[in-house]
Amino acid sequence: MSNPRLVLITGINGYIAAHTAATFLRAGYSVRGTVRARTPNVELLVNKLSEHHDGTKLELVEVPDISANGAFDRAVQGASINSPFSPTSTPQLTMISASRRASNRPPCQPRVSG
Asked: How many domains does the chain have?
């Protein structure tokens, strides 16, 4: 069974993914992130993200070879899967929906429309 409060973020040590993780942690979600290896830079990220949760809401899963069969099996266990590649949703709508749930505020509107 999946946990709707557990978010999986692949490549959590990337710039956008790290900021996304911080947003979800601040909103009270648990975050599971994938990394290829626990390097010193990853440990710095873990320390920085600890500012946004109580120490129990962040988990890292090492996925050294993303092309291996079953590489993400452990990472996805129990996580609520909401992909921007869902056949019933567009990537933009999925990301706006996730953003609204995480921040409880509407997304930014374009300055110029039309």
From this structure: 1
CATH code: domain of residue 80: 3.40.50.720
Distance CA 85, CA 32 (A): 19
pTM: 0.69
Contact in structure between 82 and 96 (CB atoms under 8 Å): no
Splitting the chain (114 residues) into consecutive groups of 10 residues, what average pLDDT does each group show?
Answer: 78 92 92 95 94 92 93 88 52 50 51 52
Per DSSP, the three-state class of 22 is helix
Domain region containing 90: 6-103
